[in-house]
Amino acid sequence: MKIFHKLLFIFFFINAITIQAQNTYPQNYFRNPLNIPMQLAANFGAVRTNHFHMGLDLRTNSQENLMVVTAADGYVSRIKVERYGFGNAVYITHPNGYTTLYAHLNKYYDQLDEYVKERQYKDEKCEQDIIFSPGQFPVTQGQLIALSGNTGGSAGPHLHFEIRDTKTEECINPLLFGFNIPDSIAPVISGLYWYDRRFSTYEPGANGIAVKKMGNMYTTDVIQVSSPTISLAIKAVDKANQGFNLGIYHAELLMDDEVMYSFSIDKVSYDDTRYINGCIDYPKLIQDKMSIQHLSSLPGMKLKNYSPSDLNGIINLKDENVHSVEIILKDFNGNTSRLKTKVKLSKTSDQISSTNTTVKANERKTITTENAEINLSKNAVYDAVNFQMSEKSSTNRDAVSNTIVLHSPYIPVHDNYTLKIKPNRKLTNEEKGKVVVLLDYGSDTNVAKGKWNGDRVESEFNRLGTATLLLDQSMPSVSPGWKEGALITGSTLRLKGAATIGDIVAFRAELDGKWLRFARMKDDFVYIFDEKCPRASGSHTLKVTTVNAAGNTNTQTFTFQR
Fold first, then answer.
1. pTM of the model
2. Coil, helix or strand for 110?
3. Alpha-carbon distance 291 to 444, whole Å?
4. What gap in Å lies between CA 180 and CA 31, rounded to an integer?
5. Which residues form the M23ase beta-sheet core domain (predicted)?
6. Are 261 and 294 in contact (CB under 8 A)?
7. pLDDT single digits (tens) 505-537
């Protein structure tokens, strides 16, 4: 009876919190920022690599240049122009204490676009982050502010839309503001996993359980576990009416009718968004592209407003009886899926033990090899890691050090760690100025200049993998999309950038001796013809200077006619 009353109290408490959360935000204050019905390609809180999705991705019917309008009265308070991330973005601050953001845009509305262009030419810099005062660009609800696009870190045409608390800059789930997006489909469950929590979720890792659908319910065979201390995780997606796979909004875990854990994704700040790595099975995401969400707290997961602090989800099995488990998943519209199963402790397996290189959550750790050292902060890991660090000979012809193996790219780190590497031969001062650190984390690489600290190069990274010092004497370059001296009749000039090691970190173009605005689109540099180079203006000389991570600078000259 006590358990029933406790369960009843928790049920009403959770639902009261949910109802309160959905009612404390102004309803129907903000309108749809597009002039077509709102359809989601991604929702707030969806799993992304190293971050939550922080807004709604609104479909634009696979088209660009749709009208984007302001969701409510306010003023343009900020714009950003960046290669990755948001691409071209507009921030509108509203008098009710919230700010809306519209990203991946192609073009701002004329008055704003002209202002940004003037600033770019004044600064001789394409990338911008401009703050405006309230009186500069006031806007009214429904006013055109931009054209939609596919700029920045976008993988296809859409509009990214956020609502933030203006004071705290926390991103809030836009669905809390009353947008009407029909959805009658409950979340779909496709996997269940258990973890031995006597050491870490990473070792030995996930144990998969086959899930079966029985009518309106999901179930599994009895889960036989070999540890008295376990946790569970769920693989599921929210299938909205539009057919896209969305993230799970709310989950609850009960054992023997007692609530063990729950989470809801209502608000997250950009300072905290990387904590997603403590909410998911990161190795499964990186290695197998599987989104599996923990129904428990990891020791180093400190995300606010995500789960109750008194419910950690750790299941302690004190006997070998069969215990009932229920998992409840809900989308924002209340569509609900349930998984019911049973768990039983069988013969207990050996426990993984710590070593002298174990890195634990909330503890600093320094680990060394003969020629390298890594310094991890107390916030570095979400769960315990028996950290393996070693050296091996590099096969890279530009290497001037051994390759340092930093455990595994399948284990996350939360913040920057410091890495020091000693070269394997004596370098001249000139060579030292051309040394970079290459971090290879499997799916991509990162190149940093680093700084010399005694006889070692010191750099910072926030992913694990293999690191090597390279002597970069290569030159970055661009390749024109036209033949030398050709007549250009199209609307753009396009240059493709290339760097042997790392990336082009600086780019400057001058047309007939004057700075010319090229936008960076992934690896390309694009100039859209305007009054700076009108039709029938004759022959032109374009001088392009590029710089790579090592500081190597290359200047190229091209000619064309217009």
1. 0.91
2. helix
3. 20
4. 10
5. 52-120, 138-167
6. no
7. 999 999 999 999 999 988 899 999 999 999 999
CATH architecture of structural domain 40-177: Distorted Sandwich (2.70)
DSSP designation for 351: P
Residue 545 CA to its chain's centroid (Å) = 31
Residue 512 three-state SS: coil
Q: Where exactly does CATH 2.60.40.1220 map onto the chain?
A: 477-561
Our CA angle for 510, 513, 514, nearest 5°, is 60
**Distance set, CA 534 to CA 176, 277, 482, 520 (Å):** 49, 50, 18, 21
Return the residue matching tokens 């370059």. Answer: 477
- Mean pLDDT across the chain: 93
**CA 262 from centre of chain:** 23
CB 551 within 8 A of CB 540: no
> What pLDDT is attached to residue 241?
74
Region of 536 please: left (phi>0), alpha (psi -120 to 50) or beta.
left
Q: What is the mean pLDDT of residues 77-94?
A: 96
Give residue 179's pLDDT. 94
Tens of pLDDT, residue by residue over 461-513, are: 999 999 999 999 999 999 999 999 999 999 999 999 999 999 999 999 999 99
358-471 fold: Chondroitinase Ac; Chain A, domain 3 (2.60.220)
Cβ atoms 398, 377 nearer than 8 A: no
User: Is-contact 200 411, C-beta < 8 A?
Assistant: no
Nearest to 148 by CA among 37, 40, 76, 57: 57
Segments of the chain assigned to CATH 2.70.70.10: 40-177
pLDDT score for 8: 40
What CATH number belongs to 477-561?
Answer: 2.60.40.1220
Q: How far apart are CA 406 and CA 256, in angstroms?
A: 42
